[in-house]
Design brief:
alpha+beta; 6 helices; globular; protein N-terminal-serine acetyltransferase activity
Amino acid sequence: MRTLQPLFEPTTLQIDSPQARLFLTFPVTEADDADMLRCMTAVAATKHLPMVNPNMTLEEMVARRESQAASGVYKVFKINNLRTGAFIGYCGFYRMDIGNFAYDCGLSILEEFHRSGYATEALFLVLDHGFIQLGFNRTTFVTNSKNVGMRGWLENVCGATLEGTFREAWRDEKVDGWVDCVMYSILRSEWEGGMRDRLLTKVNKYLVAN
């Protein structure tokens, strides 16, 4: 019988290259709460996620981390600069469906690191960990339909499949209205069938350039 274990063991992920720029660590800890809060409540993040309270407190961030850890369906990594150890962002597995070997993938990085290739490097590591090391069969990305940057990455860089639009799926209290979101998916057969190599080639171009 296939399993996803050891799913929750402490984990460090890093590109096997002397030019690697970051490493991912699981689990996030109390020491990471302030950085996680800063990243989650940044304008660049909340403008596409209306359900996130931009005024979230540190105490609420602590409760969120503890709740996710207790639920058994989250595996969230901290993204660290390999040379300095500085916090870059976070990414990982959300709402895992263990029985069906599936999960939602999410990522957020600080705005000063946008357009640097860090997101591509981090997502490659998470996807490879999920499909190759753990044996997941399917991952999905759900994002705001107006999140042009994320949608462009999923379609043009990664080659993910658009599965559909969820009309007025997210409540946006800031405008007293609703937001459409879209879902993309990647299958393990697609990852192993060429997507992994294409994305790794993209990552290596960033590494050589920097």
